[in-house]
Amino acid sequence: MTDRTIKQAIVALPTSDGAGVQLKRSIGTDMLAELDPFLLFDHFGTENPDDYIAGFPDHPHRGFETVTYMIQGLMRHKDSSGAEGLLRPGGVQWMTAGRGIIHSEMPEQTEGEMSGFQLWVNLPAAKKMCVPRYQNFEPDALPLVRPADGVEVRVVAGEVDGVQGPVNGIPSEPTYLDVTLAQGAIFSSNLPLGHTAFAYVFQGQAMIGNDKAERDHLAVLSDGDQVRVSSAEGGRLILIAGKPFGEPIARYGPFVMNTTDEVSQAIDDYQQDNFI
What we know:
Blueprint: E1 6-11, E2 13-17, E3 21-27, E4 38-46, E5 56-61, E6 64-72, E7 75-79, E8 84-87, E9 92-96, E10 101-107, E11 114-122, E12 133-137, E13 144-145, E14 151-157, E15 159-160, E16 163-164, E17 175-181, E18 185-190, E19 196-204, E20 206-208, E21 211-213, E22 217-221, E23 226-231, E24 235-242, E25 250-252, E26 255-257, H1 260-271
Antiparallel strand pairs: 1-22, 2-3, 3-4, 4-11, 5-10, 6-9, 6-11, 7-8, 7-10, 9-12, 13-14, 14-17, 15-16, 17-24, 18-23, 19-22, 19-24, 20-21, 20-23, 25-26
């Protein structure tokens, strides 16, 4: 077994998106434009309604997948295919934009904490123009596994101790885990060799092997088939991995294709109402 270690640490930078939602971005910046197959990783979290109330009104996507995982708060998804879902704390939506979709994510609360994560996952060239798909999983659909003393793992995608997450049929074969560690706890898990992997600590502190994973930093992991996470004080982190595609990336805003010509076509199709 080869343990993964931290090979790069990227600070999450404050920014805004949608109609002014305040967040921290660690993939999709000048410091780390992409991390194949991942295109963007955002952490949003605030108790100030002014930071989130305007939400993410209607906007298009083509050529990749968007994943929203809620920690606290309520957010409603609606899209041009007719799909709709209410994201609750501990729930996840996995939307495959494929050939094109228009959607919104709007808060369904006017006060209290709103926090969670958004991940963009690339699609391979052969799947970029697939039929859009929306999957919404309620919190009780995500297995809660306790693989060791003081460890709780919410499995969105991938496998922990033989327990599979509900998300499947994704080209990048993702692992997506929400890991909570009590004081002194240790979590060890297999990760597919060759898959790109990163961790993001958002509560407390954690170690990846012998390396400290700083809070609000994205820890890019070295290759290996195992990861060992520990915490002397207690902590919580998101652990994500996926199969890289090794293909050219051409992107402009919400369109991610393989060539600039394909991006230009996406813009034209959207402007001519040729999305769903």
